[in-house]
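ok here's P-type Cu(+) transporter:
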Amino acid sequence: MSITTTTSSFVNNNSSIDTLQTPLLQQPCKNPDYMQAGAVIVKVGGMTCSSCVSTVENAVNALPFVDSCSVNLVTTKAEVKIHAAAVDLQPGSEPVEEIVDTIESVGFEAEVVGITKFEAKEATETAVLSISGMSCASCVASIERLVGNMDGVKTVAVDLIKGMASVTYIIGKSSADKVSEAIESIGYDARVEHIVKPVASPKGSPGQVPAEPTVLRVCPISPAAGVEFEDARKILNNTPGVVGLFESTSGDSGVVQISYVPSRELGARDILAELGPQWRLAPRNPSTGYHMDPVLKHRILLAIPLAIIVEVLSMSMLGSLLGCWLPVVLLVTAFPVQYYCGWGFHKHAIRGLAHCSLSMDFLVSFATNMAFIYSAVWVFLNLPALISGRMTSHNTDFNDCMFFETTTILITVLLLGKALESRAKASTASALAELSSQRPTDATIVEEEDGSLRTIDVDLLHIGDRVKVLPGGHVPADGTVVMAGLNTACDESLLTGESRPVKKGEGDEVVGGSICVSGGMEFTATRVGSQTALARILQLVESAQASKPAVQRATDKVAAVFVPAILAFCAIVVCVWAVVSAVSPPQRAADMTDAEKALLVFRFALSILMVACPCALGLATPTAVVVATGAAATRLGCLVKDAQVFEVAGNRKRKMAVVLDKTGTLTEGKPGVTKTIGFQDSRAKAMLAAAEANSEHPIATAISAWAAPAGVDSTLTVTGFENIPGVGVKCDVDGHHIRAGGDLSWVVGSETMAKGMMEYVEWMQRERDDGAVVVAAAVDGVVQGCIALKDRLRPESADLVHQLRYALDLSVWMCSGDHEATAKKVAVDLGIENVIGQARPSDKMALIRRLKLNGNTVLMVGDGVNDGPALAAADVGVAVGSGVDVSTDASDVVIHSLRGLAPFIVLSRQTLKTIWRNLFWAFIFNIIMLPLAAGILYPPTGITLPPEVAGVAMACSSLVVVTNSLSIQYWTKSRYGHDEDLSKAIREATGRKAGKE
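and the structure:
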């Protein structure tokens, strides 16, 4: 096997990384405006050390209008960010002068060298609404178009599967109530579930993502308590940490949702205590499993017997017993089915028509009303003849004159289809329900005073509570173990994909939702409520399921014009048949009367309107996405952030190149020192430890631990620290200049001097040839020694490369910041041919751009932090880390283990294949059935598609799509639900022969 090795020499390129801002359920209770008006840059003179920096920062941060102050000792500049309340940002203005005076008052010189004004942003919030009555993509398009055109609305996203909508709007220009009223105006039932509003960073923490707020649901202890929402708002209005209240419109009346940021100072029990004894924890919402709409159930139960009666009377001898009264009985029996059981179709059709928004409901309503009204008019016009006995079942074929059996069967079948479709759609979200079920309802805490145990609702847990978990119990929150048995282990498989129980000991982290399978333990809660990893995973999966890949956006556009196109097609067919019947009727219709010909054309029109199905088109993509994201999370330990990933990673029409980072990705990310040379001066080792302690890189951590096993000397002062990716670190320690890195010439500051140190040069080369990472350290330009470190390869790394290269036939690259020789040795061990060593972040991005230009889809796999720019630049960025660490980096996917990467690619292919199968079925169904309904086979064969059969076919088409999407779930369960030979399963799924080398 030949190895292609490249030393990086690519052009630098800047990349920005978007930070995920966590939203908050909130209606403002008190509204501090944390929006920044701008920043003041101040030149500070007289600073000599980090103590001076702290003095300046503390003094300026104490000013009431300052959001944050950051001082750079090297540049001697301070950046002071100002609240929006201090709008007067001009040279010489009061806020600016106060900053200067404050710095001078603590003994330093200050000069304003720049002022930056930030553009004011309009405050927005997001309303999350539940919507009932949506049946197809046309409904989604109608709602998104209506709400999207409202004044002040920024974004709108409607999820057909869950029946939810998320609408972001500018506060003051729109509101949740206005959005709800607009949706209801076109025939849908809308209800505000909660309001989401981003929280600004608290003062003094610039650039940080704020702590995730959680929601506490409370209600009056009884209707006679005499308290309501306004009372709760007044009590909590000035409570620090409580950021919002919202009066729930779902579930029981009187429920108040309190949004707060949990801390050691504020918890749910504190809030309940402050509210007083008149309030209690509200009952939980019912489980997220499938529940049939009671109104729909009632209408189905009424429609079925009435439809059977109409059908039996129309098609059997029993009808003849009624004689001339048969039409009247059919009219009376069919009326409640048409206008009570089918009222949902008519209501949506009427309101949609008023807003020029047509959906499947309009087609159903229009077709059944045409048939019913025609039949009813016929009955009333012929009522005298019926009563007098001149028209009876003996001399008149009532079935040729009335369509009551057609309308009742259609309405009943469509109602049954809607119920079955809802149940099937609920099944697609079973993975999310499975994750939700992992959260226990109760928790057992250890009282601080006497050590007694108390069981409380899990929503009442505080940060800092000591929680006891028995064997077999669910862990109720995230925390740190403080006491555990010798064999304590937790099953985290549903959260991380790790099939084997994970041992836990004192100091280890535990994850809420995992199961303590043995030993029992006690832990201190560190994250509760919406802060827990399980809650954030659920939020991430729901967000991914609601996102739309490009293919869905395209089909939504088709669905938006589907109904008008069907109406136009129906009108054309009616006109064509009318002309043909009058001018040159088919042989089979030659002996028909004009009335019979008109009824034939009428039946064709009804069949067209009933068989046309935009539902299958609208469900084709979202059902597959919902199933795939859930399966990825629960079966593979992969958290997908955007559904677009499946479309990109699953596209087999383009070549795919997989770029792998080494440290922390292919290796465990826990390097250890194996050999050293030099370092006779213990003082030099202490200074090296102090320098490396400022870096979070695993190699720096290992060096710091080796150089100072008892801990870094706190008396050493580190200034001017700089971490240069791909090169090393440099700083000053107690006035001595320290450099540590892999390039000896950079460490000593001279290539000529480095060449003269042959002992070190040869030693470093030998260790690199053996696969070690080598770091040289110098103090004031004098080499103190070299360190060799090795990081063990992950056990699954070799299997991954084999799967990617041979089972999936992908191009595999390794791009590492380590020395070329070290990278090459690891590549040989793993079987990777394409290697780039000594790569800086900009070099990784340049490689990705080059691969893209060569027509590749690039999948970058890294640690999620150091590889942020490369992850953002790739078509698909995959961060390897804890499956419960829902990182806010630039990655598109977070995987717990490399074992999940190849199966994820196959899952993406399977998902995209399923989407295309769904779309093919949706289009081919309409392409075949519409001409058949239009009577294309009638002239040669006499075959027609009766309207009631057309309705059944239309209802079944959606079930076919949903069932096909569910096949993804069964596919992942059968292949990746257990520990098995993944390479074999992947080869089976991709149709490649096993054993290809």
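+1. The chain has 35 helices and 35 strands.
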